[in-house]
Amino acid sequence: MAWTYRFVSRVIHTSPGAERMFFTLNNVRALAHLEALSLRKAFYLPVPKYYGAVGPAEIRPAGPITIYIYVNVRSGEISDRIVDLIGSILSRHDDVRFLVRFSKDAPGEGNVRRKAAEALADGRVEIVPSEQDHVDYLATIARSDVLLLPYGPVEYRGIVSGVFCETAAMGKIGIIPAETWMADHVEDGRASGVLFASNTVSDMVAAVEKVILERGKLQALADSCAKPFREENSCASNLDGMIALAAKAADMRLPQVPLTDATDALGSRHYFGEGWSVADEGFGTWSDGERAEMNFTIAPDAPPLFFNALVRPFLVKGHSRLDVSLTANGVSVAEWSFDISRTADRDWSWRHVQLPAAVSASGEIQIAMHIRSPASPRSLGLSTDSRNLGIAIRQFSLEPEACAPGGDQSERPTVLARLRRRIRRKLRQVLSPSE
């Protein structure tokens, strides 16, 4: 998917009418990621949902509280333990009923049928068919007071949930994973719900107990949020947003370069010009030679920007000093000096260079590093590496402020880097001719 966005954005950038081709997302928290990936502006549009003709006044159930658990394939291992969650609540509350639906290919239904036979028999638990038409699907939500979505938080950090949309739009209380698009709505007061940190039985039981305890307050909030949510996240609002975008020619260039990981060739290689080697995953990208260029295209008329870079010089016995001069569009902007006798110089460190206002506003920025006396590990008898190493970059950005994000700067490969290597190995196995 990442390659698709990158290739498409490159083609669009040079195509006629590029200013009227829009990348859109329904998830505000994912906009910056898409922009960094595609090097192109992305625009928020509301979720295009159809809710049927059911209105809030028609869907208020009476009697015992009914909790609808919607289990899908992203629920993970908890699918097989949903029955334990149900049993824990039923053992303490006589006035709770459960509707349970397992989407196609989601496990766990068999466990519910075996272990909750008594509750199934007396109507306290009902298993909803996994295949429903739209009318029956909405009617099932209408029969409930609360929707419990036992999804893994990590899985849903960048995913929009249609089921949650119906939950909020129909005036229901949600029990949902924290740190997700769904949780953003609850925390901002645009939907009613209780969050759980992980989709474990204990965390979700605690969330259910909180809903039971605070049902009145939560239901009042759900009622007040339903109409605004329906109006915003609807097919009509989505179409209105598209029409508004199409009516203008937008400059798709970004106003700055967000923090970029130079250990990842996919995400950073397009910024590196002449004088750089290929990224070493988990480490960074080394300069190779006496001049190394970085090229950036941003929206013109940007305010004065800082070039922020997490760098490390090549300092070893026999190559104990390194001097680097930096120019931006040919204008001298910085002098960096590193010496092996200084402990801080032997490790990664952040450097911040303020660019001249005219350079920042130009829209086309080339930062050149002029490296005095780079050296190859082979010439120093250290290895067979013949690259003339000078300075390595691990992270960089062009931003209005001098930013130095914290975090682990060790040389252990990142989880993402290890995952990419595994994917590449698998691709090679799949694409190579069979023996």
Descriptive notes:
The protein is of the alpha/beta class. The chain has 3 domains: 2-43, no CATH class; 56-233, Rossmann fold, CATH 3.40.50; 257-425, Galactose-binding domain-like (Jelly Rolls), CATH 2.60.120. Helices cover 32% and strands 24% of the residues. The chain has helices at residues 2-13, 28-38, 82-90, 109-115, 117-121, 134-142, 162-169, 181-187, 201-213, 215-232, 235-246, 265-268, 357-362, 415-431, and strands spanning 23-25, 42-44, 65-71, 96-102, 125-128, 146-148, 173-177, 193-196, 257-261, 285-288, 291-297, 306-313, 321-328, 331-339, 349-354, 364-372, 389-399. The strands form 4 sheets. The protein has a 6-stranded parallel beta sheet, sandwiched between helices. Strands 9, 10, 12, 15 and 17 form a 5-stranded antiparallel beta sheet that branches. α3 (82-90) runs parallel beside α9 (201-213) and α7 crosses α10. The longest helix has 18 residues, at 215-232. The protein is elongated and about 85 Å long. The two termini are 29 Å apart.
The count of domains is 3
Helix content percent band: 25-40%
Tally of individual helices: 14
CATH architecture of the largest domain: 3-Layer(aba) Sandwich
Placed side by side, the strands forming the largest sheet appear as 5-4-3-6-7-8
